[in-house]
Amino acid sequence: MSLNNNRKKHIKFIERHLALLPGSHEAQDVNKMAIVFYAIESLCALEIDTKEIYTKNLGWIHKHYSKISLENDEPIAGFVGSLTMDIAGVNTISLPNTLFALLTLLILDDRAFLTDSIEMGRISSFVSACQLEENGSFMSALNFDSIEASSVDSNDLRFCYIAVTILYLCGSRTINDFSRYIDTEKLVEFISSQKCNVGGFGQYGEPHAGYTSCALSALKLLDSLDRLSEEFIEKSITWLVQRQVSNIGCSKFENENNASYDEFDHGGFQGRENKFADTCYVFWCLNSLQILTPDWQTLCNTSLVRDFLLNRTQNLVTGGFSKNDEDDPDLYHTCLGIASLKLIDESFNGVLCIPKNISSSLES
Ligand SMILES: [Zn+2]
Fold first, then answer.
1. Which of 8, 18, 88, 308 has the most C-beta neighbours closer than 10 Å?
2. Residues 28, 34, 37, 39, CA torsion sign
3. How far is the CA of 278 from the centre of ligand 1 (A)?
4. Residue range 340-349: average pLDDT?
5. By percentage, how much of the chain surpasses pLDDT 90?
6. 252 CA distance to ligand 1 middle (Å)
7. Is a pLDDT exceeding 90 seen at residue 325?
């Protein structure tokens, strides 16, 4: 079984989600920018010529770009997730929607926008405004009526990753570039404060594969992985490799004490200890491992990973991937299922979550 056997079904599954979008269901979804990114990125990874087909939709994405200015300051800017949320005088731009929109524009090769230094500066200033002075972490949005980080929001490692990635897409490459907009030292300290004793990163001392991937990807983009000790890196690699669920050998007996053990999870990855395997955690674990060591493909069993994805969570009837072998497929798990397989093929940039042929355009 390979991904290509069912490529057409996956493409149809993904395109159905996009067909619901522009115009027709305008009011329904505040997460539309996320849906568009998951779909366009997945189609691109399946080697559809997304630029050829979807360049005509660039205007729809641009409509979600919003500028805010207070008094005489230079405006800051970002993307809103839905036009129904874009109310005059009310600031609804957010870091996640801005990242989803920028990555989609990158895949569609919208150079005119992405090389506009004034707009990239405005977006970078928005990122700057979202950083919290007290600990260097980021809120996902600003207060509705001021250019101040919104205090009602959460500020975990996800938003640190999103903030750094947006700055990277806006042109920051060196630590000095990033430091024009954010306090990189405080940010690296915050990320380090989320390290867990057993390896990995997480809140309240409990490692989590998603947070671990966010922390490592952010450090990689900041060129600051050398801030982690060898000992911590070793512990993290061990913790990540142990997240691969197995129903054979010693790990079977370890797993049988796990209340969430399912023998059909064989080969998949769990996001935390004692949890079921899940397609999205395959991606977060593999991405973390490939950042930490060039030997990652030999440390975990990638052929069992492929079996888990292609034989358990891939839906052979409708196309798409689900989180396990019971749920219906959804776009998020489809995106990360395909991304995981492409990561194993070494054709995917896991740090930026886009195919390598797209990210290579940023490396010039
Ligand atoms: Zn999941």
1. 308
2. negative
3. 5
4. 98
5. 75
6. 22
7. no
